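Technical note accompanying the year-one report. For the benefit of new consortium partners, we illustrate the data format agreed upon in the data management plan: each record pairs a sequence with a structure-token string. No post-processing was applied to the example shown here.
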Amino acid sequence: MPEEGIISERTMPKEGRMSKEGKMPEKTDGIILDVDGTLWDSTGIVAKAWTRAVRENGCPDKTVTPEMLQALFGKPMNVIADNLLPDLTPEHRQQIMKVCCVYEQRALREELPTRKESDADRGRVDYGNQSSRDDQTGRDDRTGLRCDSDCNEEACPICYPKVTQTIRELAGKLPVFIVSNCQAGYIEMFLEKTGLSDCITDFECFGNNGKSKGENIRLVSERNGLKTPIYVGDTQGDCDASTEAGVAFVYAKYGFGTVDHADAVIGEFAELREIIS
């Protein structure tokens, strides 16, 4: 058995391929997506917001970095709090995390452009007075990432390449869903900033009901009558949640984490089209 979080040549198919030993359904009837590390990387913006929150609430020397968040995102919010602020009481941790979430939502709303959602405006984006994208480097000034803006200047600048385009294409063939361990309101923010609300059939998260990711994958599957969905994520927690829910797991290798097995692997989000075609 490979060690946890270590990729095994035996259990990992090549990128864009399905594992011969995997459990990918012959015909998928729904695609369920993770958010952080799979669809976008918000850690640059969130780290600054959380640093401000913790410093203003009893931890003046604490700095939250994008790297710290990349290692924690995907876990339930209470687990993130335990790992991020281990020396505080549970009550103090909970209080600070509430402020973190408020500051995070505010930062995402203020720093990210809002994509127009009407048919007439689709393909246009409101950057306010100035875009954050450097025309010469193709990188977003806020995050340093070469993300979706490299492939489509009008998409959310912290999305991974071709995320919005691919989701729109997939939604024309199959219902698309989102399940995350995030706080309430985070998925709605993602949909607002990408203009993808019309492409997502249903979503659920830990912040809404306190359930684990595996439970919520099963919940979304059951209430939408899915029999053979797949879950796309980037961490061992996503892999374990898929196993708990009894669905096939597609590993987004470009994301934050490693996994010990997967039913399929994608090196970029657009490769998902090949797996379900």
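Partners are asked to follow this layout when depositing records. Residues 1-10, 117-154 have pLDDT under 50 and may be disordered.
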